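User
Here is a favour to ask of a fellow structure person. I am asking you to supply a protein in sequence and structure-token form. Please set it down just below, with no commentary around it:

Assistant
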Amino acid sequence: MITIIPDMLPENHPLESLPMTPRYITIHDTANPAPGANAEMHGRYMRSQAAIDREVMWHFTVDDREIRQHLPLNRNGWHAGDGWYGNGNRQSIAIEICENADGDRAKAESNAAALVAHLIRTQPSLLPFPECVVQHNRWSGKDCPRVLRGRPGGWEAFLSAVAAQLSESRRQVPVRDPAGRLLCSGWLEENTTVVPLRALAEALGLVVEWEQATAEARLRWPGGA
């Protein structure tokens, strides 16, 4: 189980954030190797006039010690460089991985991989893995995430780390009804059994629908409203 520290931008932040149904997770590097340029500092930076003038904001910043969230996952950020209507800006959750020289970069990447796996498990609107996890470079051609891209096999290793997190977290456990009949399979996260909503609902005879306008899952009986 990961810990996410709420560090949300204020509702009166000058940059407008629009409703979003996330389909992708976009990975960035902060491009700031200065000592002290950790997740907390970047949260403060987004509140600065410099960031407002650059028109940038994103969802998460990850360093070797913390994961900080700055925007709700149903609101967009401005991070991908593909414009007002671009899929990067309008359909992706942005994660910035810190490069601060006084941090442990390998641990920061490990934390980022754990966060990506958590999002894949908890955000049903995302495309299947690994299609849902993309580089900033995909949207704008920028050399970002530059550390991962600059290391031979760096991006492939990051995706492998995400896959390992998903595999490790998903030790399968059976889920049965009171009569002992198998309904579906779930997985353990520490002491919590996690069950896919669709699998459990369909085993109970319900229909699961995704409401695009409200970014909500809805359950109904077959033939019902």
